[in-house]
């Protein structure tokens, strides 16, 4: 019997929220979903935990600094079709930061800004709407 192994990529995403009801989103500057709003996040580096990767990616993409200890795990998203590039498994985290926290697009983001939870973009990239829903209903 021949065994087949699937390449699985490991990522981390962050739902950064304010007490006033805003969520931080980035506008993707690369495919897939170029120009679409998404949660900050990205690949977990070798030797790094997903929690540390989430804090690092948040800082790299938006300038928002939180410690890994500031992040609360929301869950794991591993549906086989969640990313058109192949199999990606993400661990999602949430952080609450002060209202009026300044952010700026950096690294892989075309734009970064706070969105009211009651007035989000029509479409979010990947399954990020599901992740955001899970973060805000706990």
Written overview of the protein:
The protein is of the alpha+beta class. It has one domain: Nucleoside Triphosphate Pyrophosphohydrolase. It is 16% helix and 33% strand. The chain is built from two helices and seven strands, in the order E-E-E-E-H-E-E-E-H. The protein has helices spanning 50-62, 128-136, and strands spanning 8-17, 22-28, 37-38, 41-43, 72-77, 87-96, 109-116. The strands form two sheets. A four-stranded mixed β-sheet has the order 4-1-6-5, sandwiched between helices. The chain has a three-stranded antiparallel β-sheet with strand order 3-2-7, with no helix packed on it. It is globular, with a radius of gyration of 15 Å. 33% of the residues are buried.
State the CATH architecture.
Alpha-Beta Complex
Profile the largest sheet. 4 strands, mixed
Q: Strand portion, in percent?
A: 25-35%
Compute the number of strand runs: 7
The amount of helix comes to 10-25%
Number of helices, where a helix is a run of at least 4 consecutive DSSP H or I residues: 2
Uncertain parts: none
> CATH top level?
Alpha Beta
Instruction: Assign the CATH superfamily.
Output: Nucleoside Triphosphate Pyrophosphohydrolase
In spatial order, strands of the major sheet run 4-1-6-5
The shape, in one word, is globular
Query: According to CATH, what is the topology?
Result: Nucleoside Triphosphate Pyrophosphohydrolase
The oligomerization state is single chain
When the domains are counted, the total is 1
For the terminal residues, how far apart are their CA atoms? 44 Å
Rg measurement, Å: 15 Å
Order of helices and strands: EEEEHEEEH
Mean pLDDT over all positions: 96
Which structural class do the helices and strands define?
alpha+beta
